[in-house]
What does this fold into?
Amino acid sequence: MDKDLENLSKLAKDALQENKKYFQKLKKRTPKRLDLLMQELHDEEFERTDCLTCANCCKTTSPIFTEKDIERIAKHLKMKVVDFTKQYLQRDEDNFMVLQSAPCTFLDESDNTCFIYDVRPKACSEYPHTNRKKFIQLADLTIKNTEVCPATYRIVEELKKRLPQ
Ligand code: SF4
Ligand code: SF4
It folds into this structure.
């Protein structure tokens, strides 16, 4: 198991106020090199982190399924889009298509692999989005993700050290 996963809820809660203040300041004065630094921190973290020992994102949250995702995955499963949607998805309060249940139906809980890895939703392949361009726009989402993803928690902790405000 990931070394921080067991205590992640407490770790993230303890850091919440500090993280909110940190990102508020960073939003006001965003250095040009932020995206480059985030890419570095993301790469360093995921060199050390093995997601197969965690899978907490797949176990506790749902990705958003775009129309393209749905068409691709339904085709892969040899299902009609309408049947796939009816069987696995629902609309959330923001009108996005998400899974009906957690853990994700497509997670093999015996080894944390994904049954549809090659055709998985774009949101899954990009999660936790810590290396996205214009990262500052994802500051609020990243704070939320510290409660789900131990790698995101560690990336934010390292960011605060490397880019003090
Ligand atoms: S589709 Fe695959 S990668 Fe995405 S949440 Fe489900 S198990 Fe995880
Ligand atoms: S992305 Fe984060 S939450 Fe998901 S498996 Fe990797 S470390 Fe765990």
